[in-house]
Amino acid sequence: MYPLLRQLLFALPPEAAHRLAVSAMAAWGSVAPQRRAPVRGINIMGISFSNRIGLAAGLDKDALAPRGFASLGFGFVEVGTVTPRPQFGNPRPRLFRSAADAALINRLGFNSAGVEAMRARLARLRRRGPLAAKLGVNIGKNQATPLASATQDYLTCLRAVHPYADYVTLNLSSPNTVGLRSLQSTRPASTLLGAVVRERDALDAASGRHVPLVAKVSPDLDANGLQEIAAVLRNTRLDGVIATNTSIRRPATLKPSFAAQAGGLSGTPLFPLAMQAVRTLRGALGPEFPIIGVGGIHDGHTAQAMFDAGADLLQIYTSLVFRGPGLLRELRDVAARQPHRRASGGEDELGAHRAGGRAPEPAG
Fold first, then answer.
1. Dihedral over alpha carbons 150, 155, 156, 160 (to 10 degrees)
2. Could you say which of 107, 126, 136, 181 would form a disulfide bridge with 263 (CB–CB 3.0 to 4.6 Å)?
3. Which of 50, 71, 174, 218 is catalytic?
């Protein structure tokens, strides 16, 4: 059925198709049952995931349809990126699709209804009962916020979503907000992440529930850059890392007219860069630090390769656009075959030792 639906969606401009798909999933979520897939669960970052496959941020930016996406069988759904204040993002057109390359280029620029609108939606979501998937919230800074004041934007978003999120992602790596990726450098990253971790710890203490923090990094960092950010992640006590965001690189295989568009590349051509970033981070972070691999995963073979490179969880987005929900079943089958690993702290899985043995309370 999805090939026919894809034909209809691909007849529309990419951003219009995106809005229609999210609206359809929101409608589906209002009636869809929320049942967990009958697969072996896994504990990472102190969170018990029903399976290792998640939806990456960017598809449901304003948390309009987490129930619909969760009902497809994801182990976790990440919404956002959300900013403190509403913003339109970059001028249209700003989303480009190449079926020949199985890829997207976006320069959306954190278009967001703002964190207060998201907080209201997440509160309503919680009142409806638990999701079939864990919920991540991806946060960022407004375009108009100077880099020197970026920390305050992340703190504002964290305070708003902490009661509802199972984990929170700090987006430091989008290529579509001017200067944002400079926050991955050692000094600004240490300052920002240190402040956010301290605020998270205070919110945890007040609420009695632990909310893991992860950072999302760029595939365009070289080996030295990845090793530097890995050191910052360890030193600031982050709970995990997502590798990777979209890329400003353009492989020679891309259609020239598509490659000429500015913005972040996602989809199949991104896979080699993302897998190498995961491999480099695993070497720098050691065997216990949780890594979520994302970028170009489009079938069982690429999923297995990403696990082999060192990922503990996987996320998809662009491949869902091109292949549809059937891909999720294929990836879950691969994920279910992955061996459990033991952390040095004696936990059955990764990351609970960093939470002092505390698993997060269910958020929604």
1. 150
2. 107
3. 174
